[in-house]
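Re: the request from the purification team.
They wanted to know what the chain is likely to look like in 3D before they choose a buffer screen. I agreed to run a prediction and write the result into the notebook, where they can find it.
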Amino acid sequence: MFAVFSATILGMLLQVTDTGAVVLLGLLASILTGAMTVTAVLGGFANPSVWLIVSAFLFSHAVSATGLGRRVAFLFIRAFGHRTLALGYALAASELVIAPAVPANTARAGGILFPIITSISRACGSFPEKSPRRLGAFLMLNQFHITIILSAMFLTSMAANPLIVDLAAKTAGIRISWAAWAAAALFPGLLSLISVPWVLYRVYPPEMVESPEASAEARRRLTELGPMKRAEIALAVIVGCCLLLWVTTGVHRLDATTVALLGVAAMLLAGVITWKEVLQASGAWDALLWFGGLIAMAGWLSELGMTAWFARTVAAHVHRHWPWTLLSLALVYFYSHYAFASMTAHVTAMYAPFLAVAVAAGAPALLAALVLAFFSNLNASITHYSTGPAPIFFGAGYVSQPMWWKLGFLVSLVNLAIWAGAALPYWKLIGIW
């Protein structure tokens, strides 16, 4: 089982073919070698986390198809985009609004925000081949790092986050709800959203301080969009209700997956999306295959005792003072992402064993689970190939590779100071440890 699982992860790392195809081959190998039964393989597709992410992908499709995401972004830019730094914060705020309902950060950043940033940069006379530092370089860097921070802030804002929740439950018996994740990420997330744009603005300042053209471009694009359509209004109400239900799970006892499926049903009944669109949402069904498959394999490894054995073996050789052990593991976990081109592959390969070692060394299980969960997202800040949005923003040509890496490392230090330092008293206050 370990051999098949390792080969599957290697195939994902080397990107020999699409992720779904690699996982399918891994599942077939598991069955043919006798490592797993067909029942065990198919059991992964019945996992609630799998259907949470499928539902969230359908929300993502609706946000993009109805134009609601673009409208939200342009509204913020029109209101706050008169100065360049304020424009960076306005774009961050617009993504913050849609992030909980759009788990595919590539779709969120690349499909909604990137075209907007490109048009604003060009409207302000900033082109990759001419005057990249005028405005475009700052906006591209800023939005990429904002996307990474927001991916860490919500259970439904990055595709692999539900996988993390499932691995935490199987590895350490920790149940992380949507509300618990959001509450733990609230303070450090907002602090990062405030700090990172300011740091980038100071160390890599745009030549253009005032940006009136951005507000003008937003007004023009809003005029083109016209008044809010019925589908947009219905979607806004549905997303708002789902967020409310996710936050108040402790009151009504509906789990996150049930709420998400209710949202999908409401979108179908309201005509926001059609059943044909659901069937054509390839991203959702692709996620179902690779996500369900990985959960099945990772869960079976844990069932066979592999994770527990690894934890016992490594824990016997690590420092028994858990704060230092957790910090060391977290830093290795964070910067090992230089070797990964996928957040999902990193989570699948390293999250469970690192969590098991931290818990075996005496670290509070919920604290260790959340720290590694947040770092599973924040570590994507360091390279131009770290996650889907990275090659999109880097590929625009506004920032050189050496500068991208330098600023990525700087941002990683800022995020580490916040999420591994300033957040600790807050987490102590709300009972995380």
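For the purification team: Residues 2-429 form one domain.
Please add any questions underneath this entry.
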